[in-house]
Design a protein that fits this description.
By secondary structure, this protein is α/β, with parallel strands linked by helices. Helices cover 28% and strands 30% of the residues.
Length: 179
């Protein structure tokens, strides 16, 4: 199997380990925030959205009420990629003012996506705080950004690529590393 000329090196997480990681992140979020009051999730397109929804579903199971989930398109806020005219696909149907916002991404790498997401959220209002959750942290930060919640720390080389696959998009749940 190849991805843009890369060869699959290993499956890092399977469906069950992804479920456990989401559950662990969910419990950590509840513990740190002392419950789900004024908590909302904003998933970064595309796979961060599905991870955010899964965390919200787990919190609903545990707390009896589902936190709100929004969708964030960070394209216009990136400083390392050209902005295309595909239109803003952001859908945040709630006010972030005075909320505890958890930004969710599939993989944190350089920190540039997280920085762009923080900028985008701040343009919508002033939350009580912003937290960051990532299914995979592969290191190699270029900015002083660290996730509050991590499903799996995965040291990689810069030449490797990490791909999170989700049932909703890819038909299966797994995390794969390519070289």
């Amino acid at each position: 199997m190849s991805r843009s000329g890369l060869t699959q090196k290993a499956v890092i997480m399977d469906e069950n380990s992804m479920k456990r990681a989401v559950a662990r992140i969910s419990y950590e979020i509840l513990e740190r925030n002392k419950g789900a009051d004024k908590l909302c999730f904003i998933g970064i397109l595309s796979r961060g959205v599905y991870i955010a929804r899964r965390i919200a579903e787990k919190l609903e199971e545990l707390e009896g009420a589902a936190p709100q989930v929004g969708v964030l398109d960070i394209t216009a806020y990136r400083d390392d990629e050209k902005c295309s005219d595909s239109g803003d696909r952001t859908d945040i149907p709630f006010d972030v003012k005075d909320k505890r916002v958890v930004i969710v991404d599939d993989v944190i790498f350089t920190g540039r996506s997280a920085r762009a997401a923080i900028d985008a959220v701040m343009k919508r209002g002033r939350p009580r705080n912003i937290q960051l959750a990532a299914l995979v942290d592969r290191g190699h930060r270029e900015l002083p950004i660290r996730p509050d919640y991590v499903g799996k720390n995965l040291p990689t080389s810069r030449d490797e690529a990490v791909k999170v696959m989700m049932k909703e998009i890819d038909g299966c749940d797994k995390v794969v590393i390519f070289e």
